Amino acid sequence: MADPLAELIVYACPHGELGAQLDRYFAASLAECGQNTAHRFMPHVTLTGFFHDSIWSVRDHVAALSAAVAEAGRPGVPPATITEMHLRPDFHFLAVHSAWFVDVARRFRDRTTTRIRLKRDLHVSLAYEFSPEQHERLAGLARELVDPHAPVEWTVRLYERMPNDQWTVHGAFPCAAS
Q: Which of these, 69, 94, 106, 149, has the minimum number of CB atoms within 10 Å of its CB?
């Protein structure tokens, strides 16, 4: 019998004032407009695509991510910059620039034997796969509740997606400027 597989992914999650604003935004958008696909995830920047490996290999992936964060070192500036808020008719997000996140993801991939796809178009999703008539209200909530320039702290995490969109954190590594 084959080993059970885990569905894994690496995210950078925002905390601090921006994290609190995002929590308020997601609660308000859910209450006023109902669920869209962004509600199935915690606020995050996707650093890798989903990948599958034996449940027994999770410990090795945590060690690889820990080493990748350590090897990348402490960024000399904030690890990521939110460049702007985009409120398109079909997708609302915060654009993120981070050479440091890209470096951590590359180092992580290079330390594993699992095929891992890296992400380059970094962003924090606010809303997507919503009905067209909800665009204006969701955009208004985003403008009202989210300041893209609010202070933010980041944690790089290895998540496992469980059935019914439940999430298990297997490793969390805070990152801060030196």
A: 149
